[in-house]
């Protein structure tokens, strides 16, 4: 037995309280957003109507939350920051009816373990405030009088300093942490009606800038306007709740069940579905259950799916509050309380889907087109339709039929010809509901209109012979033309004239020889052709060939011995295996291997067959060249800007303004230029003075918002708006080698080498694979 096995098993012992406290605290407060959230929730639970958040260096050095709530009573000073000490509940049964944001008694205790925490508070029954200082375990170490009006101020310094690894990551990703914190704070600003929330930030010794501010309005709509500006309000519509339809209830398996009435009451606002009023990302979507911000993934997915049915290229602004009985909700699921379990969740989804479909289908975004024919004076109200033009001719009685032509009992000859023809055309082309055939159009016969246009369009609709043939009418010779479109003294189109025109056109286009005519082309194929072949002697030696084959076998055996003994490529060439095939290529093929690939040849004038050791690969010549050209455009193209006559105010939020200012160089490379006034009020600090233009492509504020969203997730990383990428992808596609182009070996080698010079060579900008593994020659030879 080894020494390790000989050692006695360690005894199971309890972890000391300090270690437990520190381990658990790191699980409760995970980020800057969580820390600020917990302090803001405490302020709102205390009945505050004014909450002020102050940050220094984006929260790295200082986080301070001050309110005008009820304050902390002196008897609660000691238990204020102790673990699991709370005034919100006494036993587990109280959890069912809890209505406050906090209830576990963990937040302040955890923040003591992760930072230097101090509190200044003044209860509504006190005349002077008190400053409290706590140690890492949450025990009160100092207390002293301190001037303070009613309310509480909690100060955190050096957040996460007790966890070295997390503290380092926190400092390294502070801009991303800061952006996430602002998004979480915005959710509380939207739902907290009657509460004025202000957030400011100070970088170094610079000026303190306002990040966001609400006015304390009792309206959610006013809070949205204060955060995102009046432009956002213009695109919003109030949510209108209806009962789920039978079809949707069936989709969710709710048919035949007795559903509770008025279990869910949904209120709030969503974006209109018109293109251009949505968002390029889901950065402004806020969901609440009983006014508690949360992340209901199924609800969020459903809202976006319904919106994409009407606006497939954008995402909606969403601010929805779902009111439900507290006993039907479980909020005690995750430490941050953002994951929530609901009873009757399928019913909620059915209500949401039915309501959103009804909102978007009935009113706001649907354009009703009037297809009724209108003639005004001598001009059309809209471009004439050939079918409508023909019907005008019919109703205007421009068809003259002699009595022997066609006869129906009880009708005149003209009625007999016009009526069934008119009815058939209307039924055949499906416009019977769009044209009034009984009233009106015959009264317009005296108008001059545009008769030449009418007759030309009518003549293009169908051959007169074919129309008459539908009714079994034979176009026999007679004195008058069967159909006469009266246009003027020089424009008469009869069936015979039209038939001659079409036959002439057909003969000019096809030139088909008549049956029985002499074949004038047969001589071209019967002549004797003599072929002169040139021969060239070729030197060949079986001994040399055998020697070369032996050397290749020896070399291959040595290579096999050095290769890993497993099958590296298992994915098949089919759409379902695209992701696994790409993962295998990323794992097994490095960039320097493309230079080592041997060109075998070109397949079907579209694919390059290459060989790397014993593996054969197929490379799409167009897709790989397109990806190379695309990445070159991405890296090296600087878009030129077009100056605006008047600077445009973008009405960006404070955090968006900050992201833009900090990444101004990236915006300039994308062709945007701005006028920045840091002393101006929030939402007025940045004005657009130049927009990128490139041939037929134009860009605008929506592209700026998309860039801001991308940079909030990856600050300082060069990126392009999606429309710029589309433009580059289109250009790269047009300038790349096309399928059907024959390539020389050197040209194929150049394309393969280029794959090793780009960041992501596995698929083109449009998603088509560039390369797939064909076969392993060793496996084939063994089989």
UniProtKB/TrEMBL annotation:
Residues 432-461 are annotated as: Disordered. GO terms for cellular component: MutLalpha complex. Residues 599-743 form the MutL C-terminal dimerisation domain. Pfam families: DNA_mis_repair, HATPase_c_3, MutL_C. It is found in: Nucleus. CDD domains: HATPase_MutL-MLH-PMS-like, MutL_Trans_hPMS_2_like. It catalyses: ATP + H2O = ADP + phosphate + H(+). One of its GO terms (biological process) is mismatch repair. It comes from the Eukaryota. Keywords: ATP-binding, DNA damage, Endonuclease, Hydrolase, Nuclease, Nucleotide-binding, Nucleus. The keyword DNA damage applies. Residues 224-361 form the DNA mismatch repair protein S5 domain. Residues 439-451 have a biased composition (Polar residues). GO terms for molecular function: ATP binding; ATP hydrolysis activity; ATP-dependent DNA damage sensor activity; endonuclease activity; mismatched DNA binding. Belongs to the DNA mismatch repair MutL/HexB family. This is Mismatch repair endonuclease PMS2.
């Amino acid at each position: 037995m080894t020494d390790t096995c000989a050692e006695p098993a360690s005894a199971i012992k309890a972890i000391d309280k300090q270690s437990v406290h520190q381990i658990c605290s790191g699980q409760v407060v995970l980020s800057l957003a969580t820390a600020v959230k917990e302090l803001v929730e405490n302020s709102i639970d205390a009945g505050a109507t004014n909450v002020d958040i102050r940050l220094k260096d984006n929260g790295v050095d200082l986080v301070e939350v001050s309110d005008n709530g009820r304050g902390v009573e002196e008897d609660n000073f000691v238990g204020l920051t102790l673990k699991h000490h709370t005034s919100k509940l006494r036993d587990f049964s109280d959890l069912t009816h809890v209505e406050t944001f906090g209830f576990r008694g963990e937040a302040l205790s955890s923040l003591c373990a992760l930072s230097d925490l101090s509190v200044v508070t003044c209860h509504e029954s006190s005349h002077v405030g008190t400053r409290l200082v706590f140690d890492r375990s949450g025990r009160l170490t100092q207390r002293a009088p301190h001037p303070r009006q009613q309310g509480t101020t909690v100060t955190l310094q050096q957040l996460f300093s007790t966890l070295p690894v997390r503290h380092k990551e926190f400092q390294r990703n502070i801009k991303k942490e800061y952006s996430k914190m602002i998004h979480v704070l915005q959710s509380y600003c939207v739902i907290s009606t009657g509460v004025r929330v202000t957030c400011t930030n100070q970088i170094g010794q610079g000026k303190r800038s306002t990040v966001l501010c609400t006015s304390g309005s009792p309206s959610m709509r006013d809070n949205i306007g204060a955060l995102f500006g009046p432009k956002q309000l213009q695109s919003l519509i109030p949510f209108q709740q209806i009962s789920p339809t039978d079809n949707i209830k069936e989709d969710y398996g709710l048919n035949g069940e007795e559903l509770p009435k008025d279990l869910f009451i949904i209120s709030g606002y969503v974006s209109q579905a018109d293109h251009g009023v949505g968002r390029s990302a889901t950065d402004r979507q806020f969901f609440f259950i009983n006014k508690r911000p949360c992340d209901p993934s199924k609800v969020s997915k459903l809202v976006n799916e319904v919106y994409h049915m009407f606006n497939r290229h954008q995402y909606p602004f969403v601010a929805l509050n779902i009111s439900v009985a507290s006993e039907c909700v479980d909020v005690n699921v995750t430490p941050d309380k953002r994951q929530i379990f609901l009873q009757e969740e399928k019913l909620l989804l059915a209500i949401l889907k039915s309501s959103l479909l009804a909102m978007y289908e009935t009113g706001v975004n649907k354009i009703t087109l009037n297809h009724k024919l209108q003639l005004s004076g001598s001009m059309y109200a809209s471009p004439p339709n050939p079918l409508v033009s023909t019907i005008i001719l019919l109703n205007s009685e421009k068809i003259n039929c002699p009595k022997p032509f066609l006869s129906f009992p009880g009708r005149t000859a003209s009625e007999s010809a016009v009526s069934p023809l008119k009815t058939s055309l209307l039924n055949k082309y499906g416009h019977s509901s769009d044209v009034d055939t009984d009233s009106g159009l015959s009264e317009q016969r005296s108008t001059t209109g545009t008769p030449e246009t009418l007759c030309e369009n009518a003549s293009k609709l169908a051959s007169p012979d074919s129309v008459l043939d539908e009714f079994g009418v034979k176009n026999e010779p007679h004195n008058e033309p069967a159909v006469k479109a009266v246009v003027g003294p020089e424009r008469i189109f009869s069936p015979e004239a039209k038939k001659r025109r079409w036959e002439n056109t057909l003969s000019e286009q096809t030139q088909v020889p008549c049956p029985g005519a002499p074949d004038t082309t047969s001589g071209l194929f019967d002549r004797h052709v003599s072929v002169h072949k040139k021969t060239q002697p070729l030197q060949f030696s079986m001994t040399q060939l055998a020697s070369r084959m032996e050397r290749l076998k020896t070399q291959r055996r040595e290579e096999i011995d050095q290769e890993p003994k497993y099958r590296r490529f298992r994915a098949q060439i089919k759409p379902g295996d695209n992701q696994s095939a790409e993962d295998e290529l990323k794992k097994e093929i490095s960039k320097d291997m493309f230079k080592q690939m041997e060109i075998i040849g070109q397949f079907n004038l579209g694919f390059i067959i290459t060989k790397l050791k014993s593996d054969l690969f197929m490379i799409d010549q167009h897709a790989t060249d397109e990806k190379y050209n695309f990445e070159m455009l991405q890296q090296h193209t600087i878009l030129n800007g077009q100056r605006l006559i008047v600077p445009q105010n973008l009405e960006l939020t404070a955090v968006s303004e900050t992201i833009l200012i900090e990444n101004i160089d990236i915006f300039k490379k994308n062709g945007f230029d701005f006028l920045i006034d840091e002393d101006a009020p929030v939402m007025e600090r940045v004005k657009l003075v130049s927009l990128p233009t490139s041939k037929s492509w134009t860009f605008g504020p929506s592209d700026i918002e998309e860039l801001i969203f991308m940079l909030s997730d990856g600050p300082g990383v060069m990126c392009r708006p999606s429309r710029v990428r589309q433009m580059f992808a289109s250009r790269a596609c047009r300038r790349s080698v096309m399928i059907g182009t024959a390539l020389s070996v050197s040209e194929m080698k150049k394309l393969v080498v280029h794959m090793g010079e780009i960041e992501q060579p596995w698929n083109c900008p449009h998603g088509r694979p560039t390369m797939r593994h064909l076969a392993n020659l060793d496996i084939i030879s063994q089989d």
